[in-house]
Design a protein that fits this description.
365 residues, UDP-galactose 4-epimerase, domain 1, 2 domains, two-stranded parallel sheet, 13 strands, binds nicotinamide-adenine-dinucleotide
Amino acid sequence: MAVNQKTNNFTVEARKRIVVTGGAGFLGSHVVPQLLDQDREVVVIDNFSNGKKEHLAPYADDPRLEIIEGDITRPEDVRRAFYGCRQVIHLAVLDLRQSIKEPQRVSEVNIMGTINCLEAALRNRVELFLHCSSSEVYGSGVYVPMDEAHPFRPETPYAASKIAQDMYVQSYGRVYGLPWAILRPFNMYGPNSPWEGVRGELIPKMIVRAMNGFPLVIFGDGDQTRDFVYVKETAGALLALADHPEAWSRCLNFCSGRETPVRRIAEIICRQFGLNPERYIRREDPRPGDVRRHLGDSSQFRSFFGFTPEVGIEEGIGLTIEWFKSLPLKAEELLSGEVLRNWEKEDVSYREDLFNYRSDRTARI
Ligand SMILES: NC(=O)c1ccc[n+]([C@@H]2O[C@H](COP(=O)([O-])OP(=O)(O)OC[C@H]3O[C@@H](n4cnc5c(N)ncnc54)[C@H](O)[C@@H]3O)[C@@H](O)[C@H]2O)c1
């Protein structure tokens, strides 16, 4: 992919320059075009470990976009990308399922990588470090709807690393005066969401199975719920936040306020493909660390911006199906990338031994 070189003169144009870490990822691929639509100069730093070059390919020749292949765990890469930028949108991350397989690697990227970004932001005296948190920090709802005061109860190493990120961002605000804002989105879905390999997400994996006439698999009883947001709306929320200093220095949930059981998602997808849910939904054992209830409260965000997500789940799934059908891959090619139980560690015996050891000790006590 072409890497555009830009001048580092600080002109009026340069003040609009914004760096997006992880800009080639799922959410980043919607944030970058929306920033370009606002006529911002955008620098993306991404190591393409999970992000895809094709996500940004339609904009690669745009002179306002600079794409740097770099790693946020390498301070020199981050310094280069952040140089001359006035704002930061921090999205680079390794994800939940990867964290169950490789917790050390994920914390290195998510925590140390974030600290490198904060350091580079300080050095550049940016006017905003806009961090993307996750509703995973809340874990299974102690109460619903979950507002920003809901306790942190991480169910996975990923959630623990997201809490650490949020805490570091706020501490840099307190100790060094770094201007910050945090958006905390709930589950996202939509075009460019990963369906393949370890990273496959629930909705795209089910769509790919339905496209192939395969049964849709639910892990657990299907009564676990999520608060789904169409990805383009989260991208829009980040841009709104970047423009409104009165909403900075706080964490704001971004969610639909509608609770959807996983089983309902499977039923909607079956219906959209004309499949009988009775025959095409299969249940398997639950995933470890799967949160039980997720329903968010977005009233703080709404009080600042006057909107919350509007795209309903049926409409959003329809748009996502359209996107899948537009891909240059056949249905069976999409399915060939599937890893059904994509969280499992190769060597789980250690954890089972540990569990037995703990149970023995408890029994002795
Ligand atoms: N996907 C969701 O449902 C969801 C929900 C809530 C919050 N979020 C948050 O949104 C943000 C973006 O998530 P996403 O779903 O787009 O994830 P993603 O994995 O699609 O994108 C992350 C990007 O970071 C890049 N990256 C990973 N390690 C890197 C490194 N060491 N150096 C540079 N780049 C690196 C990846 O290549 C990828 O392009 C994250 O902060 C995530 O926690 C996501």
